[in-house]
Design goal:
Length: 219
């Protein structure tokens, strides 16, 4: 029965071929450093799932943001775990992505024909940092408020465009409800969309070009 369903589906979708290309492709002999990209992918997935669950209770307004986070942590069943996974996952993701990038640099894996994979990686790094920056404000406590005050002030320091940049990021001269909603929208819609597109291209290119082999002495 299962074989028949499988055959019926494969005839119409060729899913077996897709599975083969993605999961059964040949890779050169590598080492543990090559697992850092997959580890980043795994934590990114954790962030997506726990992030979606957090939005069920989180309220992005100055009146309710702090209380909703406290409610998640102390009242919602397993809320502390979901929040904890998202909180620590954020730091883990940044560390893993940076280590992954260092592996790529040290092994020279950014060279021909993987330059475009590298470019998408650079944007991925910026997106991951963007997640950290926008997510930090969301608990709306003192630490969040003042960290964002400092962070946005730094963005306001370049000559000519600084003030303009600061107002765009804050949604006005001060940090207000507009800033909170702007950061929330960016954190849950803009950045995840970008992340999805960039990871899609990144993984396509990794499969298209194959994973680079360990560099040998003198090459
Ligand atoms: C969310 C962030 C990222 C994810 C999920 C991700 C995922 C992956 C995965 C699964 C691989 C294949 C396995 C491996 O080499 O570890 C890979 C390879 C690669 N990544 Fe990333 N990556 C990310 C960020 C970056 C960054 C920041 C850079 C560089 C700026 C980068 C550049 C590359 C390159 C050049 C390769 C090809 C390496 C090779 O063929 O040996 N990636 N990435």
């Amino acid at each position: 029965m299962a074989t028949k369903i499988n055959q019926w589906l494969d005839e119409r979708t060729a899913w077996h071929k897709v599975w083969e290309v993605i999961f059964l492709r040949k890779i050169p002999k590598v080492n543990w450093f090559y697992t850092l990209g997959s580890a980043s992918l795994f934590v990114a997935l954790n962030q997506a799932i726990t992030g979606i669950l957090l939005t069920i209770y989180y309220v992005p307004t100055p009146d309710h943001a702090y209380d909703s986070v406290q409610y998640i942590t102390t009242q919602v069943p397993l809320g502390w775990l979901i929040r904890g996974l998202h909180h620590w996952g954020a730091s883990a993701l940044i560390i893993l992505v940076v280590l992954h990038m260092l592996r790529v640099i040290i092994f020279g894996a950014y060279k021909y024909p993987r330059e475009v994979t590298w470019f998408t990686g650079v944007f991925l790094l910026l997106v991951v940092i963007g997640f950290g920056f926008t997510g930090y404000l969301l608990p709306w406590d003192q630490k969040a408020f003042w960290a964002t005050t400092v962070g946005t002030r730094i963005a306001g320091t370049p000559p000519l465009i600084g003030d303009y940049l600061l107002r765009i990021i804050r949604g006005g001269p001060e940090i207000t409800a507009v800033t909170l909603v702007r950061f929330f929208g960016t954190h849950v819609w803009v950045l995840p969309s970008l992340l999805l597109i960039l990871i899609g291209i990144h993984l396509y290119l990794i499969i298209r070009n194959g994973i680079s082999a360990k560099p040998k002495r003198g090459k």
